[in-house]
Automatic annotation (TrEMBL):
TM helices/strands, residue ranges: none
Species for this entry: Araneus ventricosus
Protein name: Retrovirus-related Pol polyprotein from transposon 17.6
Chain ranges of the Reverse transcriptase domain: 127-230
Gene3D superfamilies named in the record: 3.30.70.270, HIV Type 1 Reverse Transcriptase, subunit A, domain 1
GO biological processes: DNA biosynthetic process
Residue stretches in coiled coil: none
Pfam family, one: RVT_1
Length: 231
């Protein structure tokens, strides 16, 4: 299955890169011929797209181990009090224990979590996704209940659509496991601990299900994309 399909509204004279970061030193190799559907493009256009994708291999993640981290902002968690929240691990069905062990190993190897000795802990569950695979999700409801809300404004969808008026080409970029690309403040990882039958682990990156995660990630994206929102 192709990762994406580029669909031009009309013929493109040239395709230029707006990214000034080259991946020439990247060791990651992607077989774009099997990943991208470019059959609707002319030969010259197809060649330019393939060259562009190959040049910037490093900005594409094929799995969670490929994810980089952005530390322009480190996510913080501010609580109404410092009384630790301790919860025991949820029971895991026997047939799903290997899956949970595997997912924890992947997160450890990717540097997203690390072993913890914190006095905080929250249980985790495996949620089945539409494609049949599972996602490891922390039940952070008790932590969220005592987290001071972050009222950072989110974009207005109607206004965003209005800003596209008059444009001829539209691009969408999907950030896989986007929260896991944002760094947690090292002084606040102690609050993100998950309790499993394999031990305690804390998130070094922003976990899913955390209150203020959306606000914190939006703040980061506004900084990353500063100056690129004018059309």
């Amino acid at each position: 299955m192709a990762l994406f399909k580029i669909s031009p509204i009309h013929k493109v004279a040239c395709i230029e890169s707006v990214n000034n970061v080259s991946s020439e030193n990247s060791k990651r190799q992607i077989d774009w011929a099997t990943q991208v559907d470019l059959n609707h493009l002319e030969d010259e256009q197809r060649l330019k797209v393939m060259n562009l994708l190959s040049k910037y291999n490093s900005v594409f993640a094929q799995n969670i181990s490929d994810l980089e981290q952005c530390d322009l902002i480190k996510h913080e968690i501010h609580l109404s009090d410092q009384v630790p929240i301790r919860q025991k691990p949820y029971r895991v069905p026997y047939h799903l224990k290997p899956e949970m062990r595997s997912q924890i190993n992947v997160l450890l190897e990717a540097g997203i979590i690390q072993p913890s000795t914190s006095s905080f802990s929250a249980p985790v569950i495996l949620v089945k996704k539409s494609d049949g695979s599972y996602r490891l999700v922390a039940d952070l409801r008790k932590l969220n209940a005592k987290t001071v809300p972050d009222n950072y404004p989110l974009p207005n969808l109607t206004e965003m659509i209005d800003n596209l008026s008059g444009s001829n080409f539209f691009s969408t970029l999907d950030l896989p496991s986007s929260f896991h690309q944002m760094v947690m403040h090292p002084d606040h990882t102690k609050y993100t601990v998950i309790a499993t039958k394999f031990g305690l682990f804390e998130y070094k990156r922003l976990p899913f299900g955390l209150r203020n995660a959306i606000a914190g990630f939006q703040r980061l994206m506004n900084l990353v994309l500063a100056g690129l929102n004018e059309f």
